């Protein structure tokens, strides 16, 4: 059996907040496992503070995990490359950031941004025009500076820069959330086209379930540092199992929903109360919570077809 | 599309607020950008009017011009903003002195901003900020003001125990609820909400929206709700105005906007965002970018990006006309070309 492109197991990142006796541990990412196959899109969906961006940074090796393994083509990247990722890893895994205004250097031209990775990784620096064409931009833009471009154009440049080293996986952290509505679809379509034509895989980080559904692939729902449910996009949206996923889905603006009668979500909201370290992180807000939920962390319940959830109620067949 | 066509109507409906031919210019080193270009828009008492458009379309500028909260380099250069007073013509907010305006602000028109942290004073407890608003505008004893502050907190679903909290001790959703409580403190007739939920997570956003609807039905104020998120707007609004490059290009009931959009820009917007349970149609988005308002294109401002543009669109600006149950500014629907 061949190993998947990216295999993440038990990924954990704890931050220590404060010092001395007042120090406490923030569990930003806790025991998260998933795989991304070649040419596959996996979306990490969650609210702010869910740990999705920290997971992205760990996978892109911009940060070091507290525990767990990250394997690329079956090879352990973390123990072999303790201080920083090897050039081979960095060639294979590239990152696109949320803010196309902050991720490009204002004093350099578009061409400079694209030539640098080409030269550093031993490619033909003349490929700049090709790269721009690939992301749907006019090659003449190479002479422009970032401030002369629109947000959508800048994000396309950021994607072109990631493509320069011909990566097999692009970690895209909210790549369209800062763009105007009318240009978002174009960037999402570009990502899908690159997947179809070049076999680029994506780890797509988003708070927007609808865009994750649109891109297809698999969706992993994160809550308070835990991965709570995973399934292919259609299954997750149409047959969610975890109470948190259901809450999230009920909150997404849906113009087709009946208006005035729309019931607000059942669960209480507000900041997620600090969960009992042992139990399910969603216990405090969960309409199906039982005594067991606060005490014991749920294991993965396999629901068939690659669909799973970490939920005692799901495991016990209680659906509320 | 409905056939009947009435003559060009720019006259706003009578009601709570009527914005007439309002123009706002930004004086920049590169020249003058007309951010709001002759917009007419009316609000009925107790309705929620959604204002949608992309960044830079002028929606926030338009909304902030109403209580005259614009700052340099934005200058109101024309038009009227009439606030109805129950009889007659109402009062033109643009003609008020600073002192008269001060009495209208908050008592008649209150504002909720996108970032509650910026709207709240970080070194004052929540209670002090509520009391402050009440006592600044009304002759009220400290004790009565405190009691009203507690009631206001209850109104927006926040326990009285949070009155002693500082803003940084509250979550983003709770801060926005406090901002709404402060806005409602004097029972205004109009609440302007500028992207009030954009900085919040979806679950919290849904709760705030439900709260606004509940309060609006109970207290009867009108809302001018501004956002770029048209799917959210369709859920909350009674009517929706779509803005593009400083103009209102379409105005209709929320249902009409969703089910039967007329303006090519509205159609493009609706074809730009994925829906959760929608069919798997490919989204198209809108090619190109909004025009430079210092040097806008002649004719229709959307023409360079419009799939239906023809010669007339590139030469002559469409006026907003009423077609069936909507207003739309587009040559596809407007009166035939006038032959001299």
Automatic annotation (TrEMBL), chain A:
Residues 6-249 form the ABC transporter domain. It comes from the Bacteria. GO terms for molecular function: ATP binding; ATP hydrolysis activity. It comes from Streptosporangium sandarakinum. GO terms for biological process: peptide transport; transmembrane transport. CDD domains: ABC_NikE_OppD_transporters. Residues 253-276 are annotated as: Disordered. This is Peptide/nickel transport system ATP-binding protein.
Automatic annotation (TrEMBL), chain B:
GO terms for molecular function: ATP binding; ATP hydrolysis activity. It is a peripheral membrane protein. GO terms for biological process: peptide transport. CDD domains: ABC_NikE_OppD_transporters (cd03257). It holds the Pfam family ABC_tran. The keyword Amino-acid biosynthesis does not apply. This is Peptide/nickel transport system ATP-binding protein.
């Amino acid at each position: 059996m061949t190993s998947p492109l990216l295999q993440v197991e038990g990924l954990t990142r704890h931050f220590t907040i404060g010092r001395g006796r007042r120090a406490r541990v923030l569990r930003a990412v806790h025991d998260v496992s998933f795989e991304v196959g070649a040419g596959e899109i996996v979306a990490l969906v969650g609210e702010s503070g869910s740990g999705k961006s920290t997971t992205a940074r760990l996978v892109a090796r911009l940060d070091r995990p507290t525990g767990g393994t990250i394997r690329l083509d079956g090879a352990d990247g973390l123990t072999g490359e303790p201080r920083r990722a090897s050039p081979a890893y960095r060639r294979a895994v590239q990152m696109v950031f949320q803010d196309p205004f902050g991720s490009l250097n204002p004093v350099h031209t578009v061409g400079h941004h694209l030539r640098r990775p080409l030269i550093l990784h031993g490619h033909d620096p003349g490929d700049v025009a090709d790269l721009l064409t690939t992301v749907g931009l006019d090659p003449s833009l190479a002479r422009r500076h970032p401030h002369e471009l629109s947000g959508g154009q800048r994000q396309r440049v950021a994607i072109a820069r990631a493509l320069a080293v011909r990566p097999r996986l692009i970690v895209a952290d909210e790549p369209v959330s800062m763009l105007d509505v009318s240009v978002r679809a174009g960037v999402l379509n570009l990502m899908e086209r690159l997947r179809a034509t070049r076999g680029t895989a994506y780890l797509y980080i988003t708070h927007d379930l609808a865009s994750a559904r649109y891109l297809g692939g698999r969706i992993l729902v994160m809550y308070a540092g835990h991965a709570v449910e995973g399934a292919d996009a259609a299954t997750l949206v149409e047959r969610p199992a975890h109470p948190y996923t259901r809450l999230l889905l009920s909150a997404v603006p849906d113009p087709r929903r009946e208006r005035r009668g729309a019931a607000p979500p059942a669960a209480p909201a507000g900041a997620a109360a600090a969960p009992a370290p042992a139990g399910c992180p969603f216990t405090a807000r969960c309409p199906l919570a039982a005594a067991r939920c606060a005490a014991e962390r749920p294991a993965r319940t396999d629901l068939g077809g690659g669909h799973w959830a970490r939920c005692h109620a799901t495991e016990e067949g209680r659906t509320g | 599309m409905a056939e009947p066509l009435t003559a060009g109507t720019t006259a706003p409906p009578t009601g709570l607020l009527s914005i007439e031919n309002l123009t706002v210019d930004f004086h920049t080193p590169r020249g003058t950008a007309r951010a709001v270009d002759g917009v007419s828009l009316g609000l009925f008492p107790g309705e929620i009017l959604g204002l949608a458009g992309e960044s830079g379309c002028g929606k926030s500028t338009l909304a902030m011009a109403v209580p005259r909260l614009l700052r340099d380099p934005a200058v109101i250069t024309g038009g009227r903003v009439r606030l109805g007073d129950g009889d007659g013509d109402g009062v033109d907010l643009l003609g008020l002195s600073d002192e008269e305006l001060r009495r209208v602000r908050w008592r008649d028109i209150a504002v909720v901003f996108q970032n509650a942290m910026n709207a709240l004073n970080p070194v004052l407890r929540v209670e002090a900020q509520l009391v402050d608003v009440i006592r600044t505008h009304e002759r009220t004893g400290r004790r009565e003001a405190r009691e009203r502050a507690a009631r206001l907190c209850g109104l927006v679903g926040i326990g009285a125990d949070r009155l002693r909290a500082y803003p940084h001790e509250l979550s983003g959703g709770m801060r926005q609820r406090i901002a709404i409580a402060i806005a409602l403190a004097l029972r205004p007739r109009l609440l302007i909400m500028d992207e009030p939920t954009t900085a919040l997570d979806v679950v919290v956003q849904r709760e705030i929206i439900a709260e606004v609807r509940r309060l609006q039905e109970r207290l009867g104020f009108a809302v001018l709700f501004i956002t770029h998120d048209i799917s959210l707007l369709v859920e909350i609004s009674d009517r929706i105005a779509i803005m593009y490059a400083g103009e209102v290009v379409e105005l209709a009931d929320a249902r009409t906007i969703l089910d039967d959009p007329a303006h090519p820009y509205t159609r493009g917007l609706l074809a730009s965002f994925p829906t959760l349970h929608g069919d798997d149609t490919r989204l198209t988005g809108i090619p190109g970018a909004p025009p430079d308002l210092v040097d806008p294109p002649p004719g229709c401002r959307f023409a360079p990006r419009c799939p239906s543009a023809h010669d007339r669109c590139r030469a002559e600006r469409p006026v907003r006309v009423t077609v069936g149950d909507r207003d739309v500014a587009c040559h596809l629907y407007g009166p035939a070309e006038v032959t001299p």
